Amino acid sequence: MKNTKFPPLNEREQTVLEAVVHIYITTAEPVGSRTVVKKLGLNLSPATIRNVMADLEEMGYLTQVHTSSGRVPTDMGYKYYVNHLMKVQELTLAEREHIKQELTKKMDSADQILRQTSHLLALASHQAGLAELPVENTAVIRRVELVPLLERQVAILILDNFGVVHTSSVVLDDTVSPQLLESLSKFLNESLFNVSIDNIYSVVRESLKKFFDERRKLVELALKILTQVEPPTNQMFLDGTNNLFDQPEFQEPTKVRSIIGIMEDPSPLVKALREALAHSENQQRTVLIGSETMMNNINEFGVIASSYRLEEEGEPAGFIGILGPKRMPYERLSSIVDYTAGMVGKMLSRLWR
Amino acid sequence: MKNTKFPPLNEREQTVLEAVVHIYITTAEPVGSRTVVKKLGLNLSPATIRNVMADLEEMGYLTQVHTSSGRVPTDMGYKYYVNHLMKVQELTLAEREHIKQELTKKMDSADQILRQTSHLLALASHQAGLAELPVENTAVIRRVELVPLLERQVAILILDNFGVVHTSSVVLDDTVSPQLLESLSKFLNESLFNVSIDNIYSVVRESLKKFFDERRKLVELALKILTQVEPPTNQMFLDGTNNLFDQPEFQEPTKVRSIIGIMEDPSPLVKALREALAHSENQQRTVLIGSETMMNNINEFGVIASSYRLEEEGEPAGFIGILGPKRMPYERLSSIVDYTAGMVGKMLSRLWR
DNA sequence: TTTTAGCACTCACCAAGAGAGAATGCTAAC
DNA sequence: GTTAGCATTCTCTCTTGGTGAGTGCTAAAA
């Protein structure tokens, strides 16, 4: 899609494209020229619109599912619509209140808030909702605890500033004295405090060097323990995937499997979204369509995502969004995503202030 | 199913029922009398077998998908087969070695072992594998940690004897002094050590009473904190659900949704399995078929489960199993489940010895 | 130059029908 | 008790023909 050209459209062409997208979104049926005329209320005959639609097809914005059927937007058509034609709908007061209310329920961790967010988005959109935990490079270690469990087993708990606890445990070859563990714990806390979780390995290794000769045994133990800490995979919550099965485009078995695929491993989608958000205007909102979603050769999905920030003007800390068929009501859903992202940011920052 | 009668079968009827089940399991097509004769190599004509099959149908063991189609086993037919006819196949040495190898990989927690188990079972069976963490009533608290995170936020960590860490965190109304937290932590550790996780509330409440007048503030805080600990839902790992989509019986959209349903909430299945295992011979292995699986009105599944024990002659600590269509190769899969359950028990007990 | 009426054409969709094939149940004979 | 024979039942597939929505093209109108 990167190098595809988007030929410019005159006013009439824009109007027709917009109409086709709108009609197709609500009906899921190929759109014919007559229908467009009726919808637009123009004083033109279907034949005229037919010519416009033929032009739009030639430029790559529309396509026919078979000769002499109505037109359907291509990915490029959707993209043009989203970028140039769509007017984001304001949410009603009631809708805003509802979102606000659902997100101001008592929640004590980022985990809970984002799980709730994905649920809320799924409910509000009748599509699948997704919500990512704050990305690691903004997460910072607050505390490391080593807890002796049984003679040779030690649990490692890493708490970050978002209240997320990363746990792991290790079975050692030798027994460890409580004294040794305690001094190790102290050492780790000192060297890891406020270190980004991303950097856990490098920082520790470095600060370990200083100690190496002094406390050889301690150092070895520390390395042994830390290699057990799994690099925290950035977690994403995905809710309401069953809504997708209601869509006519996901009835076929092959399409069904693609949904399962996402549930099992959303990482390609996450990666694509992060990239797109980083390059988007203001790093605010992005829409990916079809192949852009990077879901193993399934080009049926569309996704709308917005970043949230922990401070008004800060860096994006993570994103939330809605996943559905390409044929989604973008105008309405975009505003839901935007507003919710704002609220999530507020709620998260309130957590630790 | 509870009150259904299982009319006794004579030898020929048993042979025919067994043949029908076997053939249907491999072909997924209704089985005709001719096919049965060929398979059995008997010196009888199809007409004779037809009569037997008609009898079996009358008794409820077989059914026709439509007049003048071949026969298919009913749930009752499968059940009779599993209980009386099936001969559990020995695993080959290679198969046993493979399972052993996969389970003796370095793993440091019950969590990892059972996740790996569900994966292994899915792979070996080409169905979905499931594995439950050791049930709570055998899990006992080893250690409680209260970790101050930020001024008003406290994380609660409960470690059980299986190396599983239950975490939660709470935002308090007032700030808490480290001293208070420390004494509270000490108090909780004393009163909760070796207490079953099931009983956390009752035990704490009781032992709190003793302290009530002495240290009022401490007690209130403890209660506040403990109400934040979510009752740990017994976790079950489910892997390989995508294998199910390959089965012809799960092609239709409605069936597909039932699979999703299980992925989202397997608790009815878990409950049914626990119950069945408790009443099974030796509390060892059980097979549930169709409606017995308790999956909201979807009667297409079958499940084979075995309990594992932490000590040779101990109580069952949890179960593992295989979920697939009713039409599963029970003879082979049963032995896989049995053997794996034995290995899991060994691996778990080795963890904390 | 733009728009439109008219018309032939294309294609999906549906219903009805015909024929093949796999099984069955039943009856009467072995 | 077993079986051969046969009419019967039902699914599945393929064909056929009709309908309707929509298109592209051409030539005329604005």
Architecture overview:
- Two copies of one chain form a homodimer.
- With 353 residues, the first copy, chain A, is α+β, with helices and mostly antiparallel strands.
- Chain A folds into three domains: 11-85, Winged helix-like DNA-binding domain superfamily/Winged helix DNA-binding domain (Arc Repressor Mutant, subunit A); 93-135 and 235-351, GAF domain (Beta-Lactamase); 137-226, 2-Layer Sandwich (Enolase-like, domain 1).
- Helix content of chain A is 47%, strand content 18%.
- Chain A contains 13 helices and ten strands.
- The first copy, chain A, has a five-stranded antiparallel β-sheet, sandwiched between helices. Chain A has a three-stranded antiparallel β-sheet with strand order 4-5-6. In chain A, strands 1-2 form a two-stranded antiparallel sheet.
- In chain A, helix 1 (11-27) packs across helix 2.
- At the A-B interface, strand 4, strand 5, strand 6 and helix 11 of A face strand 4, strand 5, strand 6 and helix 11 of B.
- Chain A binds a DNA duplex (30 and 30 nucleotides) through helix 3.
